[in-house]
Amino acid sequence: MNRKMMLRRVQLEDFALFEARLFLDTHPTDADAQAYYRKHLEQAKAAREAYEAKYGPLEATSYPGGNWKWIDDPWPWENMEEE
Questions:
Q1: Which of 1, 34, 42, 64 is a good FRET partner for 52, with 20 to 30 A between their CA atoms?
Q2: For residue 73, what pLDDT band results from cuts at 50, 70 and 90?
Q3: Read out DSSP for 39-80?
Q4: pTM score, two decimals?
């Protein structure tokens, strides 16, 4: 999977989580919605970890520390058309 597809996967999973949270706000005891949320929470975590392992952190809070080179790396949306 290329960079663009991996980033799209992160975005899709994050969107699914956002929508599920909105639904659970009004249906807090819906077991199917809770299962859906947990499933997409795991998938979002896996998608983010896979992307960050290959291309670096997506957020400043994901930065592992050490040498601060965040500004030197391309942003996730830069140069995506090259892939």
A1: 34
A2: low
A3: HHHHHHHHHHHHHHHHH--SSGGG---SS--GGGSPPTTTTG
A4: 0.75
* Chain-centre distance for alpha carbon 20: 15
Exposure of 15 in the CB half-sphere (CA atoms within 13 A): 6
pLDDT in tens, 26-49: 999 999 999 999 999 999 999 999
Encoding tokens for residue 32? 């199917």
Q: How far is CA 31 from the centre of its chain?
A: 24
Contact 80, 4 (CB under 8 A): yes
Does residue 6 contact residue 47 with C-beta atoms inside 8 Å? yes
Write down the residue that tokens 């391309």 correspond to.
74
How distant is the alpha carbon of residue 43 from its chain centre? 9
CA angle at 41 for the pair 38 and 45, rounded to the nearest 5°: 145
**Tally of CB atoms within 10 A around 28:** 9
